[in-house]
Write a structure and sequence with these properties.
It is built from nine helices and no strands. It is mostly helical. Helix 2 runs antiparallel to helix 3 and helix 6 packs antiparallel against helix 7. The relative contact order is 0.08.
Length: about 180
């Protein structure tokens, strides 16, 4: 395949960083085809290569994709651990937006695992982080997830207020960007 040819060429060159990226992309393709075992193996190989090369950002990206594969198989605890490691790698790499998105993924996994209170607490922090970073898209997604994490028992008034404020801030940021 083209992936394998690229990988072989990069290995001959000793380019571990780009080889890790090729493996990550191959793992994503396998994920999209629902080939879970192959995707997990390929992403694990990518992660090992990223670690060996010292590519912290590559590790973060690969860990997020590995978390998706694990979640698709309902291995929620493994997926949660991968998302936590991804958030830590993004933080080490100085990528605040990546860290916030990894923490949003983690909150979704917590909600899926029935840990609604833990998910809600994390989502409040994610909303604040996203707003502080000027990332209205992630703030809005976190607000929607916060509403879902409240479940059937209803969300307290302050939860709805937080969601509404997040939406208004996101709208304000978008309008200010459009009117420039």
């Amino acid at each position: 395949t083209a992936f394998q040819a690229s990988l072989d060429h990069l290995k001959r060159l000793g380019d571990a960083v780009r080889a890790g990226a090729v493996l990550n992309n191959l793992g994503l393709a396998q994920l999209e085809r629902c080939n879970w075992n192959a995707a997990e193996e390929t992403l694990t190989e990518s992660l090992e290569g990223n670690r060996a090369a010292g590519d912290v950002a590559g590790q973060a990206t690969t860990l997020m994709n590995l978390s998706k594969v694990q979640a698709a198989q309902e291995h929620l605890e493994d997926a949660r651990l991968s998302a936590e490691k991804a958030a830590a790698c993004y933080e080490t790499a100085g990528d605040g937006r990546g860290r916030t998105q990894a923490r949003l993924a983690l909150a979704k996994l917590l909600r899926r695992a029935g840990k609604r209170a833990e998910a809600a607490a994390l989502l409040q922090a994610v909303i604040a982080e996203a707003q502080a970073a000027g990332d209205p898209g992630t703030a809005t997604k976190a607000g929607v997830e916060f509403a879902l994490s409240a479940g059937k028992r209803g969300m307290p008034w302050w939860g709805w207020l937080l969601v509404a404020i997040s939406g208004l801030i996101a709208l304000g940021i978008l309008l200010s960007l459009l009117l420039k």
